[in-house]
Design goal:
Number of strands: 15
Low-confidence stretches: 354-367
CATH superfamily of the largest domain: P-loop containing nucleotide triphosphate hydrolases
CATH class of the largest domain: Alpha Beta
Radius of gyration: 24 Å
Helix content: 25-40%
Order of helices and strands: HEHEEHEHEHEHHEEEHEEEHEEEH
Protein backbone atom coordinates (compact mmCIF):
# COMPACT_ATOMS: atom_id res chain seq x y z
CA UNK A 1 0.00 0.00 0.00
CA UNK A 2 1.34 3.47 -0.97
CA UNK A 3 2.07 5.69 2.03
CA UNK A 4 0.21 9.02 2.10
CA UNK A 5 2.46 12.09 2.17
CA UNK A 6 2.25 14.08 5.41
CA UNK A 7 2.81 17.79 4.67
CA UNK A 8 2.81 18.89 8.33
CA UNK A 9 6.59 19.08 8.79
CA UNK A 10 7.14 20.64 5.39
CA UNK A 11 4.45 23.26 6.10
CA UNK A 12 6.09 24.23 9.40
CA UNK A 13 9.62 24.44 7.96
CA UNK A 14 8.67 26.51 4.91
CA UNK A 15 6.58 28.88 7.05
CA UNK A 16 9.65 29.59 9.21
CA UNK A 17 12.06 30.00 6.30
CA UNK A 18 9.94 32.23 4.02
CA UNK A 19 8.63 35.41 5.61
CA UNK A 20 5.12 36.48 4.64
CA UNK A 21 4.29 33.12 3.05
CA UNK A 22 0.59 32.42 2.56
CA UNK A 23 -0.58 28.81 2.83
CA UNK A 24 -3.91 27.55 1.51
CA UNK A 25 -6.58 29.31 -0.50
CA UNK A 26 -7.82 32.87 -0.02
CA UNK A 27 -11.02 33.10 -2.04
CA UNK A 28 -12.81 36.46 -1.75
CA UNK A 29 -15.44 36.65 0.96
CA UNK A 30 -16.43 40.31 0.55
CA UNK A 31 -17.85 41.73 -2.68
CA UNK A 32 -18.91 45.29 -3.49
CA UNK A 33 -21.67 45.92 -6.03
CA UNK A 34 -21.05 48.21 -9.01
CA UNK A 35 -24.61 49.47 -8.64
CA UNK A 36 -25.78 47.57 -11.73
CA UNK A 37 -27.11 43.99 -11.64
CA UNK A 38 -26.21 43.12 -15.25
CA UNK A 39 -22.62 44.38 -14.94
CA UNK A 40 -22.21 42.51 -11.64
CA UNK A 41 -23.37 39.30 -13.29
CA UNK A 42 -20.99 39.58 -16.24
CA UNK A 43 -18.09 40.17 -13.84
CA UNK A 44 -18.82 37.48 -11.24
CA UNK A 45 -21.79 35.32 -12.37
CA UNK A 46 -23.76 36.83 -9.48
CA UNK A 47 -26.24 39.72 -9.73
CA UNK A 48 -25.20 41.19 -6.37
CA UNK A 49 -21.43 40.64 -6.41
CA UNK A 50 -19.26 43.26 -8.13
CA UNK A 51 -15.61 43.70 -7.17
CA UNK A 52 -13.86 41.53 -4.55
CA UNK A 53 -11.67 42.53 -1.62
CA UNK A 54 -8.23 40.92 -1.69
CA UNK A 55 -7.92 41.50 -5.45
CA UNK A 56 -7.28 44.27 -8.00
CA UNK A 57 -9.97 45.49 -10.43
CA UNK A 58 -9.48 47.92 -13.33
CA UNK A 59 -12.13 49.99 -15.16
CA UNK A 60 -10.67 51.37 -18.39
CA UNK A 61 -12.31 53.66 -20.90
CA UNK A 62 -12.35 56.96 -22.73
CA UNK A 63 -13.09 60.24 -20.98
CA UNK A 64 -16.73 60.53 -19.90
CA UNK A 65 -17.46 56.80 -20.24
CA UNK A 66 -18.66 56.51 -16.62
CA UNK A 67 -15.52 55.08 -14.99
CA UNK A 68 -15.43 57.58 -12.11
CA UNK A 69 -19.21 57.38 -11.72
CA UNK A 70 -18.93 53.65 -10.99
CA UNK A 71 -15.57 53.50 -9.18
CA UNK A 72 -15.61 56.74 -7.16
CA UNK A 73 -19.39 56.92 -6.86
CA UNK A 74 -21.35 53.66 -6.75
CA UNK A 75 -18.59 51.38 -5.48
CA UNK A 76 -17.48 53.75 -2.71
CA UNK A 77 -21.11 54.30 -1.63
CA UNK A 78 -21.81 50.54 -1.57
CA UNK A 79 -18.52 49.80 0.21
CA UNK A 80 -19.38 52.31 2.94
CA UNK A 81 -22.82 50.71 3.34
CA UNK A 82 -21.00 47.42 4.11
CA UNK A 83 -18.77 49.04 6.73
CA UNK A 84 -15.70 49.13 4.47
CA UNK A 85 -13.37 52.11 4.94
CA UNK A 86 -12.31 53.75 1.66
CA UNK A 87 -8.99 55.40 0.82
CA UNK A 88 -9.57 57.45 -2.35
CA UNK A 89 -6.44 58.49 -4.27
CA UNK A 90 -7.30 61.27 -6.73
CA UNK A 91 -4.52 61.67 -9.31
CA UNK A 92 -6.56 63.91 -11.63
CA UNK A 93 -7.54 66.48 -8.98
CA UNK A 94 -11.07 66.21 -10.38
CA UNK A 95 -13.19 64.63 -7.63
CA UNK A 96 -15.10 67.40 -5.86
CA UNK A 97 -16.79 66.77 -2.53
CA UNK A 98 -20.11 68.14 -3.81
CA UNK A 99 -20.09 65.70 -6.74
CA UNK A 100 -19.25 62.72 -4.51
CA UNK A 101 -21.98 63.64 -2.03
CA UNK A 102 -24.50 63.95 -4.87
CA UNK A 103 -23.70 60.32 -5.75
CA UNK A 104 -24.39 59.23 -2.16
CA UNK A 105 -20.79 59.03 -0.93
CA UNK A 106 -20.20 59.83 2.76
CA UNK A 107 -17.19 62.18 2.71
CA UNK A 108 -16.76 62.30 6.51
CA UNK A 109 -13.34 61.37 7.91
CA UNK A 110 -14.81 58.30 9.63
CA UNK A 111 -15.79 56.76 6.29
CA UNK A 112 -13.41 58.21 3.69
CA UNK A 113 -9.81 59.36 3.40
CA UNK A 114 -9.18 61.35 0.22
CA UNK A 115 -5.59 61.82 -0.92
CA UNK A 116 -4.45 63.92 -3.87
CA UNK A 117 -1.17 62.81 -5.42
CA UNK A 118 0.14 62.47 -8.94
CA UNK A 119 3.39 60.47 -8.67
CA UNK A 120 3.40 56.69 -9.14
CA UNK A 121 6.15 56.44 -6.51
CA UNK A 122 4.04 58.31 -3.93
CA UNK A 123 1.02 56.08 -4.54
CA UNK A 124 3.18 52.96 -4.21
CA UNK A 125 4.78 54.25 -1.01
CA UNK A 126 1.39 55.16 0.48
CA UNK A 127 -0.09 51.71 -0.11
CA UNK A 128 3.11 49.96 1.02
CA UNK A 129 3.31 51.95 4.27
CA UNK A 130 -0.38 51.33 4.97
CA UNK A 131 -0.12 47.56 4.43
CA UNK A 132 3.02 47.30 6.57
CA UNK A 133 1.28 48.91 9.55
CA UNK A 134 -2.00 47.11 8.83
CA UNK A 135 -0.38 43.66 8.87
CA UNK A 136 1.62 44.37 12.03
CA UNK A 137 -1.45 45.65 13.86
CA UNK A 138 -3.74 42.76 12.90
CA UNK A 139 -1.27 39.87 12.63
CA UNK A 140 -2.98 37.99 15.47
CA UNK A 141 -6.50 38.42 14.12
CA UNK A 142 -6.60 38.36 10.32
CA UNK A 143 -10.32 37.60 10.11
CA UNK A 144 -11.19 40.45 12.47
CA UNK A 145 -9.06 43.05 10.67
CA UNK A 146 -11.02 46.07 9.39
CA UNK A 147 -12.04 46.01 5.73
CA UNK A 148 -10.41 48.63 3.52
CA UNK A 149 -10.79 49.54 -0.16
CA UNK A 150 -8.29 51.61 -2.14
CA UNK A 151 -9.70 53.55 -5.10
CA UNK A 152 -7.23 55.09 -7.58
CA UNK A 153 -8.77 57.52 -10.06
CA UNK A 154 -6.87 57.24 -12.32
CA UNK A 155 -3.77 55.22 -13.25
CA UNK A 156 -3.48 57.01 -16.59
CA UNK A 157 -2.85 60.45 -15.05
CA UNK A 158 -0.02 59.39 -12.75
CA UNK A 159 3.47 60.73 -13.41
CA UNK A 160 6.94 59.24 -13.11
CA UNK A 161 9.96 61.19 -11.78
CA UNK A 162 11.25 61.30 -15.39
CA UNK A 163 8.08 63.12 -16.50
CA UNK A 164 8.56 65.77 -13.82
CA UNK A 165 12.30 66.23 -14.42
CA UNK A 166 11.82 66.62 -18.17
CA UNK A 167 8.99 69.11 -17.67
CA UNK A 168 11.12 71.22 -15.33
CA UNK A 169 14.01 71.12 -17.82
CA UNK A 170 11.74 71.92 -20.76
CA UNK A 171 12.82 68.74 -22.52
CA UNK A 172 9.65 66.74 -23.32
CA UNK A 173 11.00 63.50 -24.78
CA UNK A 174 8.67 61.22 -22.86
CA UNK A 175 9.48 58.86 -20.02
CA UNK A 176 11.17 56.24 -22.24
CA UNK A 177 8.72 53.49 -21.28
CA UNK A 178 9.19 53.83 -17.52
CA UNK A 179 5.51 54.41 -16.73
CA UNK A 180 4.21 51.00 -17.96
CA UNK A 181 6.91 49.30 -15.88
CA UNK A 182 6.02 51.42 -12.83
CA UNK A 183 2.29 50.66 -13.16
CA UNK A 184 3.00 46.94 -13.57
CA UNK A 185 5.17 46.96 -10.45
CA UNK A 186 2.49 48.89 -8.51
CA UNK A 187 -0.32 46.45 -9.35
CA UNK A 188 1.81 43.31 -8.89
CA UNK A 189 2.95 44.45 -5.47
CA UNK A 190 -0.60 45.32 -4.46
CA UNK A 191 -1.78 41.83 -5.45
CA UNK A 192 0.96 40.25 -3.34
CA UNK A 193 0.43 42.60 -0.37
CA UNK A 194 -3.36 42.20 -0.22
CA UNK A 195 -3.44 38.39 -0.56
CA UNK A 196 -5.70 36.97 2.11
CA UNK A 197 -6.23 40.31 3.88
CA UNK A 198 -9.45 42.33 3.92
CA UNK A 199 -8.02 44.93 1.55
CA UNK A 200 -8.85 45.51 -2.12
CA UNK A 201 -8.09 47.94 -4.94
CA UNK A 202 -10.11 49.32 -7.82
CA UNK A 203 -8.48 51.68 -10.31
CA UNK A 204 -9.63 53.54 -13.39
CA UNK A 205 -7.50 53.95 -16.49
CA UNK A 206 -7.65 55.47 -19.97
CA UNK A 207 -7.97 53.79 -23.35
CA UNK A 208 -6.97 54.78 -26.86
CA UNK A 209 -8.31 53.78 -30.29
CA UNK A 210 -6.77 50.66 -31.82
CA UNK A 211 -4.84 50.97 -35.10
CA UNK A 212 -5.04 47.22 -35.70
CA UNK A 213 -7.77 46.30 -38.22
CA UNK A 214 -7.70 42.69 -36.99
CA UNK A 215 -8.13 43.72 -33.33
CA UNK A 216 -10.42 46.78 -33.31
CA UNK A 217 -11.05 46.86 -29.54
CA UNK A 218 -9.76 49.99 -27.77
CA UNK A 219 -6.35 49.53 -26.13
CA UNK A 220 -5.75 50.19 -22.45
CA UNK A 221 -2.97 52.72 -21.83
CA UNK A 222 0.00 51.95 -19.60
CA UNK A 223 0.98 48.65 -21.20
CA UNK A 224 -0.32 45.13 -20.65
CA UNK A 225 1.78 44.18 -17.63
CA UNK A 226 -0.59 45.36 -14.89
CA UNK A 227 -3.58 43.79 -16.68
CA UNK A 228 -2.08 40.32 -16.17
CA UNK A 229 -2.01 40.85 -12.41
CA UNK A 230 -5.57 42.20 -12.18
CA UNK A 231 -8.46 39.84 -11.39
CA UNK A 232 -11.11 41.83 -13.30
CA UNK A 233 -10.64 44.26 -16.21
CA UNK A 234 -13.61 46.12 -17.73
CA UNK A 235 -13.31 48.15 -20.94
CA UNK A 236 -15.83 51.00 -21.21
CA UNK A 237 -16.94 53.06 -24.20
CA UNK A 238 -19.08 56.21 -24.20
CA UNK A 239 -22.24 56.24 -26.30
CA UNK A 240 -25.02 58.84 -26.40
CA UNK A 241 -28.28 58.22 -24.54
CA UNK A 242 -31.19 59.70 -26.50
CA UNK A 243 -34.18 58.60 -24.46
CA UNK A 244 -36.68 60.34 -22.19
CA UNK A 245 -37.78 59.15 -18.74
CA UNK A 246 -40.25 56.67 -20.30
CA UNK A 247 -37.67 55.18 -22.65
CA UNK A 248 -38.97 56.88 -25.78
CA UNK A 249 -36.44 57.83 -28.50
CA UNK A 250 -35.69 61.56 -28.71
CA UNK A 251 -33.15 63.73 -30.54
CA UNK A 252 -31.74 65.36 -27.40
CA UNK A 253 -28.81 63.75 -25.55
CA UNK A 254 -30.05 63.05 -21.99
CA UNK A 255 -27.12 61.03 -20.69
CA UNK A 256 -24.62 58.36 -21.66
CA UNK A 257 -24.79 54.69 -22.48
CA UNK A 258 -21.71 53.08 -20.98
CA UNK A 259 -20.86 50.11 -23.18
CA UNK A 260 -19.05 47.78 -20.77
CA UNK A 261 -17.09 44.76 -21.98
CA UNK A 262 -15.50 42.27 -19.59
CA UNK A 263 -11.97 41.86 -20.96
CA UNK A 264 -10.80 39.68 -18.10
CA UNK A 265 -12.40 38.03 -15.09
CA UNK A 266 -11.53 35.07 -12.91
CA UNK A 267 -15.14 34.55 -11.86
CA UNK A 268 -17.19 34.41 -15.09
CA UNK A 269 -16.95 34.04 -18.86
CA UNK A 270 -14.90 36.89 -20.41
CA UNK A 271 -15.68 39.05 -23.46
CA UNK A 272 -19.35 39.47 -22.56
CA UNK A 273 -20.80 42.98 -22.84
CA UNK A 274 -23.68 45.12 -21.61
CA UNK A 275 -24.82 48.69 -22.17
CA UNK A 276 -25.53 50.55 -18.93
CA UNK A 277 -27.68 53.67 -19.19
CA UNK A 278 -26.69 56.65 -17.04
CA UNK A 279 -29.18 59.55 -17.47
CA UNK A 280 -27.83 62.94 -16.35
CA UNK A 281 -30.92 63.70 -14.25
CA UNK A 282 -31.55 60.45 -12.40
CA UNK A 283 -28.23 58.58 -12.51
CA UNK A 284 -27.76 54.89 -13.28
CA UNK A 285 -30.72 52.54 -13.14
CA UNK A 286 -29.51 49.36 -11.36
CA UNK A 287 -31.74 47.27 -13.66
CA UNK A 288 -30.28 48.83 -16.82
CA UNK A 289 -29.04 46.19 -19.27
CA UNK A 290 -30.85 43.29 -17.61
CA UNK A 291 -33.53 42.93 -20.30
CA UNK A 292 -30.88 42.66 -23.02
CA UNK A 293 -28.91 40.18 -20.90
CA UNK A 294 -31.96 37.95 -20.35
CA UNK A 295 -32.80 38.12 -24.06
CA UNK A 296 -29.31 36.93 -24.99
CA UNK A 297 -29.69 34.00 -22.61
CA UNK A 298 -33.12 33.11 -24.03
CA UNK A 299 -34.86 33.76 -20.73
CA UNK A 300 -36.94 36.58 -22.20
CA UNK A 301 -38.31 35.67 -25.63
CA UNK A 302 -39.90 38.09 -28.07
CA UNK A 303 -43.47 37.30 -29.05
CA UNK A 304 -44.82 39.95 -31.42
CA UNK A 305 -44.09 43.34 -29.87
CA UNK A 306 -43.81 41.95 -26.33
CA UNK A 307 -41.42 39.83 -24.29
CA UNK A 308 -42.40 36.54 -22.68
CA UNK A 309 -40.95 34.86 -19.61
CA UNK A 310 -41.90 31.38 -18.41
CA UNK A 311 -41.27 30.90 -14.67
CA UNK A 312 -40.21 27.57 -13.09
CA UNK A 313 -43.86 26.73 -12.42
CA UNK A 314 -44.67 27.03 -16.12
CA UNK A 315 -46.63 30.26 -15.80
CA UNK A 316 -46.19 32.71 -18.67
CA UNK A 317 -45.48 36.41 -18.02
CA UNK A 318 -45.94 38.58 -21.13
CA UNK A 319 -45.45 42.35 -21.26
CA UNK A 320 -44.06 45.19 -23.35
CA UNK A 321 -40.29 45.77 -23.22
CA UNK A 322 -40.61 49.02 -21.25
CA UNK A 323 -42.72 47.28 -18.60
CA UNK A 324 -39.96 44.80 -17.75
CA UNK A 325 -38.53 46.70 -14.78
CA UNK A 326 -38.27 46.53 -11.00
CA UNK A 327 -40.25 43.68 -9.41
CA UNK A 328 -40.55 41.70 -12.65
CA UNK A 329 -36.80 41.64 -13.16
CA UNK A 330 -36.31 40.85 -9.45
CA UNK A 331 -38.52 37.78 -9.99
CA UNK A 332 -36.42 36.58 -12.95
CA UNK A 333 -33.15 37.14 -11.06
CA UNK A 334 -34.41 35.20 -8.04
CA UNK A 335 -35.65 32.30 -10.18
CA UNK A 336 -32.46 32.32 -12.27
CA UNK A 337 -30.31 32.14 -9.14
CA UNK A 338 -32.37 29.26 -7.72
CA UNK A 339 -32.20 27.28 -10.98
CA UNK A 340 -28.43 27.85 -11.23
CA UNK A 341 -27.89 26.68 -7.64
CA UNK A 342 -30.06 23.63 -8.30
CA UNK A 343 -27.94 22.73 -11.35
CA UNK A 344 -24.74 23.03 -9.29
CA UNK A 345 -26.18 20.77 -6.58
CA UNK A 346 -27.25 18.14 -9.14
CA UNK A 347 -23.75 18.13 -10.68
CA UNK A 348 -22.17 17.70 -7.25
CA UNK A 349 -24.53 14.83 -6.39
CA UNK A 350 -24.02 13.02 -9.72
CA UNK A 351 -20.70 11.30 -8.80
CA UNK A 352 -22.23 10.11 -5.52
CA UNK A 353 -25.19 8.47 -7.27
CA UNK A 354 -22.82 6.90 -9.79
CA UNK A 355 -20.70 5.50 -6.97
CA UNK A 356 -23.77 3.98 -5.30
CA UNK A 357 -24.76 2.39 -8.60
CA UNK A 358 -21.27 0.87 -8.94
CA UNK A 359 -21.50 -0.57 -5.43
CA UNK A 360 -24.82 -2.27 -6.29
CA UNK A 361 -23.34 -3.79 -9.46
CA UNK A 362 -20.33 -5.09 -7.51
CA UNK A 363 -22.64 -6.64 -4.93
CA UNK A 364 -24.63 -8.36 -7.71
CA UNK A 365 -21.42 -9.74 -9.20
CA UNK A 366 -20.42 -11.10 -5.81
CA UNK A 367 -23.69 -12.94 -5.50
Amino acid sequence: MTKVFDATKFRKSITKSIQGLGIGFSDPTDWISTGNYALNYLMTSDFNKGIPLGKVTVLAGESGAGKSYIASGNIIKNAQAQGIFVILIDTENALDETWLQALGVDTSEEKLLKLSMSMVDDVAKTISEFMKGYKEQHADNKEGAPKVLFVIDSLGMMLTPTDVNQFEAGDMKGDLGRKPKALTALVRNCVNMFGSWNVGLIATNHTYASQDMFDPDDKISGGQGFIYASSIVIAMKKLKLKEDEKGNKISEVRGIRAACKVMKTRYAKPFEGVQVKIPYDTGMDPYSGLVDLFEKKGILVQTGNRLKYVDPQGKEHIDFRKAWTGDKLDMIMANFKESTEAKVESVEEAPKSKAKKTEIIEEDDAE
